[in-house]
Amino acid sequence: xxxxxxxxxxxxxxxxxxxxxxxxxxxxxxxxxxxxxxxxxxxxxxxxxxxxxxxxxxxxxxxxxxxxxxxxxxxxxxxxxxxxxxxxxxxxxxxxxxxxxxxxxxxxxxxxxxxxxxxxxxxxxxxxxxxxxxxxxxxxxxxxxxxxxxxxxxxxxxxxxxxxxxxxxxxxxxxxxxxxxxxxxxxxxxxxxxxxxxxxxxxxxxxxxxxxxxxxxxxxxxxxxxxxxxxxxxxxxxxxxxxxxxxxxxxxxxxxxxxxxxxxxxxxxxxxxxxxxxxxxxxxxxxxxxxxxxxxxxxxxxxxxxxxxxxxxxxxxxxxxxxxxxxxxxxxxxxxxxxxxxxxxxxxxxxxxxxxxxxxxxxxxxxxxxxxxxxxxxxxxxxxxxxxxxxxxxxxxxxx
Amino acid sequence: xxxxxxxxxxxxxxxxxxxxxxxxxxxxxxxxxxxxxxxxxxxxxxxxxxxxxxxxxxxxxxxxxxxxxxxxxxxxxxxxxxxxxxxxxxxxxxxxxxxxxxxxxxxxxxxxxxxxxxxxxxxxxxxxxxxxxxxxxxxxxxxxxxxxxxxxxxxxxxxxxxxxxxxxxxxxxxxxxxxxxxxxxxxxxxxxxxxxxxxxxxxxxxxxxxxxxxxxxxxxxxxxxxxxxxxxxxxxxxxxxxxxxxxxxxxxxxxxxxxxxxxxxxxxxxxxxxxxxxxxxxxxxxxxxxxxxxxxxxxxxxxxxxxxxxxxxxxxxxxxxxxxxxxxxxxxxxxxxxxxxxxxxxxxxxxxxxxxxxxxxxxxxxxxxxxxxxxxxxxxxxxxxxxxxxxxxxxxxxxx
Lengths: 400, 400
What we know:
Chain A is of the alpha/beta class. Chain A has helices spanning about 15-30, 45-55, 65-85, 120-125, 150-165, 195-205, 215-220, 275-285, 310-325, 355-365, 390-400; strands spanning about 5-10, 35-40, 90-95, 100-105, 115, 130-135, 135-140, 145, 170-175, 195, 225-230, 240, 255, 260-270, 290-295, 300-310, 330-335, 340-345, 370-375, 380-385.
């Protein structure tokens, strides 16, 4: 008998029919002799509706009260799913975050899981209950309700799997698994059978939003085998684990990230310590920098170009504008009509040709590369936003 | 500095505007130097909407999961009210039933409050916070969420007032207080300044649904002064306390209860123990009997007539039908087109004329009396349902 943790996102439980569908998946797993813990998010648009209710009353509501409000969303979905499972005739019990033992940090709206005290879950499994747990939420040391932030339910599921040493953690979404590219944009994209944690992390960071990043990090840390699969179709998904059998595939996927803005600081003096000065001002404002490109000094000056998340773009720009004379820049340029296209793959390291194939594909498609960044298992390029989808297709066609 | 508990029902917090209105009432009380604990119900139709969601999935859902579902309603309203109070610039914190220390029995959907461990509330008041508590809910000894049943938020408020020895417990509703009759039906009805617990209890039982009965019983037990008032108008309401100054008024009100069915068991043998046999069969089915009338034995037989709540009527009838031969009845009659009209008043006891004035009013209005029942502070009559509103007006006109 195996212990399986199954997580269903908001769209999987959006209405009565889908809740019944999830109940069928869960009870089938139970019927096959497994112990089952189910983690669910709030139904469909519930969270957005609650945020709207709050905005009407107080757009600057405290995060503590926002968490109190939002946590009601999962409370509704766990109760409804438990009722659906009761309807199918199986023993079930729903548990809120605090009942399931989720102890978190105190940072409301983006709390970190500190510990899962799984005693209650274990007790309910011993009674042969299917256990339905509210994802996304916990309590802090003051006994106050906290939420884990967007995508937190994935993390809840992996945390339970880790605490209980589950045999498998299945993440059900509205896609059938992890693809070599976005299947809605690239018709030839194929589903991967397996992918390693590291590759999945790079893909998640790069905007392929199949799995929440924190959940993959946690799965890697505790070596929890994940499966990403669809709640709508009855097909095997993609397994995420330590060493994936990539079937000699060089790259696991092509990802697109449109949440990027590019900033160029032009004509700064070519003296030591300048990059430090510049980026420390940004980090003081909690602005993370991604790709950095520095030109070779000429005439005693150089240009520094880097990317930030689009929503931080304007803030980064104003911050630097105010230091323009201090750092001695002649100009600061800003562009948020850009996209980052990346290829990811553990096999890349030993195959120098992969990056050049990528550049070749872009060249053939007449797409200009603004910046390049590489890591051991990743190559990213910054290009024009308008070229993004075309670039993904071209690269995918060339490499697969 | 006084400690005031204020309770607001679902219609008082039905939308953003009304939530802001409640926030103003609460913060005004706080501004005047009081410590304030606020108890709120779920917004407007939330509870009914949640019940509908459950029905769609499983009409026979367990009570435990129904309680889990319904408790989310107050969670939403406490968070929104806290946000509204934040908006007005006052320190506030919202607490769920379990956080506020509500320990209840385990009977889901109709749990009884066992104890309020008010430590957390006290701590928050010491920090000068306005404390907003979710009514209607608590947890049982298994740490599972329970609800107190309809009208439970009144009871929550009184329980907090009792646990904290509050100086006043204000119950805000959509009426301005307790009236001598339903003001929507009887234009001449007047608002009472004061009423005693016992009179209020009789009125509540009799269908004047201003206050939940359990809350009045608890207020009487712990001698908590209640005030019933409207959240929409800024007027003093009705005070409910041990000894009310009735300003020489004989009766405090005329109440109508349409939730009644009458059952007559005809021609049973006139022997001892028969009433016991009959009513023990009903109590075994948890059916409460209200007015009982037994005819004087004639020809060795007698008739027993009694009333039950309308929703229990058919069940009572079938129960008795199955025992018809055992108890030797010749016939069983059933009528649920009846209403109970009652006058209540502590002054009644010493004024024999009150009851006869009531009968006179009905006689003049050509309304036939089917049954009569009296207690120290109450006279009830059972009449035709069609005559009910006319009867209330006639009695009110005669007595006030």
